[in-house]
Every structure is written in structure tokens, then in C-alpha cells.
């Protein structure tokens, strides 16, 4: 599965946007024996800019993952057709087609080539400390059903670039928090830290065995947290950066 030309162009543009927005620090890597093979990347989700930061970090180490995206993004004007043409995969969690979508994803993973990236949490964390929320077992089930290695990715800093904002943008008042916070972030230039961890050990777990998807999910999430702790040593409890728009109604069972 080769990387579409459009996606290569868009990742280059993305790298420029991220360079403008802050300072990118990348640690860890993808093992050489996993490159070009089926691979799943699982990351924590801390802010609206972190997908762009993740793409830039992946480009720095020489990979161009495609994302497993909610259908709403792929149906959006302008962005939707670009994402589809770039090879990103669709999943509508609430639809009857979700099983078929996962089958298509497993098939894409098995073909190898570019890794597939996803956020097990399914949304930006609303935990007061911005630690990963419980999340869902989708990444774990994909890994087990296809025998696919999982590389955990930990991110910190991207939450300082753009506010959480609103769940729906219908006018200027809704868009204003994103734009004003981004402009302030340009002056501050936060540091975006991305760490690629060691592949998560799942070889003793079996697809379809009761409880194994949950166990695999817990291992993936704990691996993400293990990589996150060193990135925020000076912020072990609450983020120093305060985002007044982000609700803090969530909880993290993985908090160390």
C-alpha cells in the first residue's frame, strides 16, 4: 500500500504549519523490522492541534500514517474529499456498518505499507489533569483480530496551541476561541513533545477470548501513560496551561 501523492504533499504542508506553531521534539522511533509491515499507532488525545503534531512527528521519522476517522470528518466539505483521496479510513461508531468498517481496517492493516493511526480515547481528554480517559477497545480489537503490532505514542504540549473551543462551530462566536488562542500560541511557541514507545506486548492474548480485548486495551493505554510521564515531569497533576473552554468532567483510570 503506497502513500498517495496527495497525502505526501499534505504532510509536507502540515510540517510547515507545525513548525510555525511551536517547537517539535520527537523521541523514540519505529523499529526497523516493523516498517513497511502492518502496524497500528495508538496515541493519547490532548488538543485540537495534536493530530497535526502527530503527523509532523511521523514525517520526521519517515512514516506517513493514515488515520481511522469518524464519518463526519470524511463527509465535511473540502476537507472530506481531501481526506478520502489521501487514503484515510472511515468508521461510524454508532452505525450498523461498524463491523464492516473494522473488517476493512484489518484488511488495510494486513496489506502493510503505511501504518494506521487512531486515538483509543475517541475524544480529547476531559480529565482535569489531561491524563488519558478510559477509552474504547477498538484499537485493541483491531490489533488482536489481525495480529497487528501496536506502537504507543505519547503527546504533550499541543494543548497549549489551540483551545478546546466548542463542540459545534456555527458562527464567529464559536470560532473565536480557536483563532484567538492560536494567535496567542504563535507568540508563545509552545514545545510539542511526541514519544514513540516500544511495541506493546499482546502475543499472549487471543482474539475473541472473553476479556482479552479489555486486557489488550489496558496494556495499550498504560504504555501510552508510561511514555507520557517523562514528557510532563514538571506537570504531574494539572497542566500549567489553563484552557478555560475545556470542560474537566472526565476521569482517567490510567493516571499514575
Structure description:
- It is built from eight helices and seven strands; from the N terminus they run H-E-E-H-E-H-H-E-H-E-H-E-H-E-H.
- By secondary structure, it is α/β, with parallel strands linked by helices.
- A seven-stranded mixed β-sheet has the order 1-7-6-2-5-3-4, with helices on both faces.
- Helix 1 crosses helix 2 (50-60), helix 5 (98-110) crosses helix 6 and helix 6 packs across helix 8 (212-228).
- The longest helix has 17 residues, at 5-21.
- The relative contact order is 0.19.
Note the main attributes of this structure:
globular; 8 helices; 37% helix; alpha/beta; 256 residues; seven-stranded mixed beta sheet
Task: Give the helices and strands, then pairings.
Elements: H1 5-21, E1 23-28, E2 40-43, H2 50-60, E3 66-70, H3 71-74, H4 79-85, E4 89-91, H5 98-110, E5 116-118, H6 138-146, E6 150-156, H7 172-188, E7 191-196, H8 212-228
Parallel strand pairs: 1-7, 2-5, 2-6, 3-4, 3-5
Antiparallel strand pairs: 6-7
Question: How many DSSP helices?
Answer: 8
Mean pLDDT: 89
- Strand portion, in percent? 5-15%
Shape: globular
Largest sheet: 7 strands, mixed
- Poorly predicted parts: 94-98
Count the strands? 7
Radius of gyration, Cα only, in angstroms? 18 Å
How many angstroms does the end-to-end distance come to? Answer: 38 Å
Instruction: State the helicity in percent bands.
Output: 25-40%
**Main sheet strand line-up:** 1-7-6-2-5-3-4
User: Structural class of the helix and strand makeup?
Assistant: alpha/beta
The H-and-E topology, N to C, reads as HEEHEHHEHEHEHEH
Amino acid at each position: 500500500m503506497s502513500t498517495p501523492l496527495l497525502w505526501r504533499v499534505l504532510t509536507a504542508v502540515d510540517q510547515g504549519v507545525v513548525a510555525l506553531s511551536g517547537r517539535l521534539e520527537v523521541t523514540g522511533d519505529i523499529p526497523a523490522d516493523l516498517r513497511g509491515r502492518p502496524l497500528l499507532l495508538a496515541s493519547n488525545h490532548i488538543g485540537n492541534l495534536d493530530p497535526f503534531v502527530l503527523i509532523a512527528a511521523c514525517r520526521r521519522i519517515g512514516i506517513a500514517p493514515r488515520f481511522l476517522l469518524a464519518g463526519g470528518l470524511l463527509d465535511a466539505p473540502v476537507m472530506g474529499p481531501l481526506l478520502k483521496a489521501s487514503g484515510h479510513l472511515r468508521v461510524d461508531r454508532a452505525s450498523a456498518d461498524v463491523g464492516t468498517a473494522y473488517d476493512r481496517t484489518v484488511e488495510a492493516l494486513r496489506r502493510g505499507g503505511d501504518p494506521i493511526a487512531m486515538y483509543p480515547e475517541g475524544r480529547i481528554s476531559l480529565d482535569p489533569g489531561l491524563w488519558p480517559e478510559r477509552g474504547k477497545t477498538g484499537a485493541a480489537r483491531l490489533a488482536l483480530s489481525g495480529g497487528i503490532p501496536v506502537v504507543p505514542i505519547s503527546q504533550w504540549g499541543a494543548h497549549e496551541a489551540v483551545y478546546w473551543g466548542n463542540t459545534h462551530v456555527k458562527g464567529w462566536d464559536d470560532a473565536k476561541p480557536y483563532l484567538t488562542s492560536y494567535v496567542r500560541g504563535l507568540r508563545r511557541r509552545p514545545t510539542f513533545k511526541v514519544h514513540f514507545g516500544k511495541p506493546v506486548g499482546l502475543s499472549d492474548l487471543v482474539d475473541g477470548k472473553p476479556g482479552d480485548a479489555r486486557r489488550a486495551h489496558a496494556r495499550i493505554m498504560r504504555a501510552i501513560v508510561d511514555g507520557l510521564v517523562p514528557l510532563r515531569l514538571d506537570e504531574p497533576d494539572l497542566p500549567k496551561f489553563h484552557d478555560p473552554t475545556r470542560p474537566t468532567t472526565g476521569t482517567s483510570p490510567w493516571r499514575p
